[in-house]
From TrEMBL:
InterPro entries the UniProt entry points to: ATPase_NBD (IPR043129), ROK (IPR000600), ROK_cs (IPR049874), WH-like_DNA-bd_sf (IPR036388), WH_DNA-bd_sf (IPR036390)
Highest taxon above the source species: Bacteria
One GO molecular-function entry: kinase activity
PROSITE patterns the UniProt entry points to: ROK
UniProt keywords, alphabetically: Kinase, Transferase
Disulfide bond keyword on record: no
Protein name: Putative NBD/HSP70 family sugar kinase
Family the UniProt entry places it in: Belongs to the ROK (NagC/XylR) family.
SUPFAM superfamilies, A to Z: Actin-like ATPase domain, Winged helix' DNA-binding domain
Length: 390
C-alpha cells in the first residue's frame, strides 16, 4: 500500500493514495486508512469527505472499534464510473465493460481473420465498444474512457512499431484512431502490462507492493509493478519476459536470439513440439486429462517457463509472481506447480523470503479487464511522477 505525505501541494496525490486504499481493501475505516497511508486523521477526513461528495466512495456499514462508537466502513461506489477494455490479439478481439471496482459487467468476443487490415480492425474495436455500452445500458456520461491492450512495441503516442506477429501494422497510430472512432479518451498499453494493472486493480495483487506478471497468449510477455508503481522502462516496453533465453541452442526467435521463452513456449511452439496436427487447445485438454505425450510437452514447457521465472525472481527480488493469459487454458495448474517449486528451491534469496506463485482468477480475460483497468489506473492511481513534477 502506498504511503501518503503531509507536505503541502500534494493534495491530488494524497487523494489518489486514499482512494487506492479504499479500493484495494474492499472496505476500510478512516482510522485504518490513516494507519496504512501514513496520513494524519485530519487529512484523511478531509479527503474522504470530498470523495463522498464526488460520489466515488460510499459509507457502507460499520465495524466494531476498540473503544467508542463503531467505525464507518468506506467502499468505492462501483457504479460511479465505467470503462471499456479492448484486447486486440492477432486471433481475437475481446471487449469487457468494467465498473469502477474492476468487476466485469459485460463481455464480448469476436474472432479475427489475419488478412483484415488495420483500419478495419480498429473500426471493429470501436463498434464493439459502442455495442457493449448500448447492450449494458450505460450512458456516455458514465464512461471514463476506453482502455486498449494490444501487442507491442508501442511508442509514447500509442503508435505500434513493427509488432512481430502483425505484418502490415508498423507505424499504425492505434490509440489515435480508436479515440477518433469511439469519441472517448483512449489509454493504451501492451497486453501484458495491461493484465498486470488489471491484477493490481481488481485481482489477487491489490495490496501487493510489487509483483511480476507472466502473460501467456499468442505470444509471451510480462508486466511489472515495483514499489507500487507500474514499471515500463525508458521506451515503455519493459518486462519482455518472453525473450529471456532458456535454450541457448534452441530454435531461432523472431527477435534475433535463439531459444527464447516465446520461441519454445508459445502455443505455436507447443503445437510444433507435439507434431501430430493437434491445436493448442486440444493439446492442453489432453495434457490435463493425463495423455502421456501431451503431458510431456506441457511439462517441458513448464520447466522452461520456470527457468525464466527464477531469473526474474533473482533479478527483481519480488515475493509474488502471477500467471495469466488465455494460453493457460486447462494447464495453468501444471505451470503453477512447476514454477512454484522452482522459485522455492533455486533463487539466491530463497532462505530470506518465499515467493508466491498464483494463477490469475481472471486469466482468460486478463488483458481485456486489464485494459479497462488502464483507464481507472490512469485516472485515479497515485503516481510518483505527478508528485515529483513541478
Amino acid at each position: 500500500m502506498q504511503q501518503g505525505t503531509n507536505l503541502p501541494k500534494v493534495g491530488s496525490y494524497n487523494r489518489a493514495v486514499v482512494l487506492e486504499a479504499i479500493q484495494a481493501s474492499g472496505g476500510i475505516s478512516r482510522v485504518q486508512i490513516a494507519a496504512v497511508t501514513g496520513l494524519t486523521a485530519q487529512t484523511v477526513s478531509v479527503i474522504v469527505r470530498r470523495l463522498l461528495e464526488e460520489g466515488l466512495v460510499v459509507e457502507d456499514g460499520s465495524a466494531p472499534s476498540s473503544g467508542g462508537k463503531p467505525r464507518t466502513i468506506l467502499r468505492v461506489d462501483a457504479r460511479a464510473g465505467y470503462a471499456v477494455g479492448v484486447h486486440f490479439d492477432p486471433q481475437e478481439l475481446s471487449c469487457v465493460l468494467a465498473d469502477l471496482a474492476g468487476n466485469p459487467v459485460a463481455r464480448l468476443h469476436q474472432p479475427l481473420r489475419e488478412q483484415i487490415g488495420p483500419d478495419t480492425v480498429i473500426r471493429r474495436m470501436a463498434r464493439a465498444a459502442r455495442r457493449i455500452l448500448r447492450e449494458a445500458g450505460v450512458p456516455d456520461g458514465k464512461v471514463l474512457g476506453v482502455g486498449l491492450a494490444c501487442p507491442g512495441p508501442l511508442d509514447a503516442d500509442g503508435v505500434m512499431v513493427s509488432p512481430p506477429r502483425l505484418p502490415g501494422w508498423d507505424r499504425v497510430p492505434i490509440k489515435g484512431l480508436l479515440q477518433e472512432y469511439t469519441r472517448f479518451p483512449v489509454t493504451v498499453d501492451n497486453d501484458a502490462t495491461a493484465a498486470a494493472i488489471g491484477e493490481r486493480w481488481a485481482g489477487i495483487a491489490r495490496s501487493a507492493p510489487g509483483f511480476a506478471y507472466l502473460y501467456l497468449g499468442t505470444g509471451i510477455g510480462g508486466g511489472l509493478i515495483l514499489d507500487n508503481q507500474v514499471y515500463r522502462g525508458s521506451s515503455l516496453n519493459a518486462a519482455e519476459f518472453g525473450h529471456i533465453t532458456v535454450e541457448p541452442e534452441g530454435p531461432e526467435c523472431y527477435c534475433g536470439n535463439r531459444g527464447c521463452v516465446e520461441a519454445v513456449c508459445c502455443p505455436s511452439a507447443i503445437e510444433a513440439a507435439l507434431g501430430n496436427g493437434a491445436d493448442h487447445a486440444a493439446i492442453c485438454a489432453a495434457a490435463a486429462s493425463g495423455e502421456p505425450e501431451a503431458r510431456r510437452v506441457i511439462e517441458r514447457v513448464a520447466q522452461r517457463l520456470a527457468d525464466a521465472a527464477v531469473s526474474v525472481v533473482n533479478m527483481l527480488d519480488i515475493e509474488l509472481l502471477v500467471l495469466g493469459g488465455p494460453a493457460l487454458r486447462e494447464v495453468g495448474e501444471i505451470y503453477r506447480q512447476v514454477i512454484a517449486r522452482a522459485v522455492a528451491e533455486r533463487p539466491l534469496a530463497r532462505r530470506l523470503h518465499g515467493v508466491r506463485v498464483e494463477t490469475s482468477p481472471i486469466a482468460a480475460d486478463a488483458a481485456a479487464i486489464g485494459a479497462a483497468s488502464l483507464v481507472f489506473h490512469a485516472t485515479y492511481a497515485p503516481r510518483l511522477g505527478a508528485l515529483l513534477s513541478g
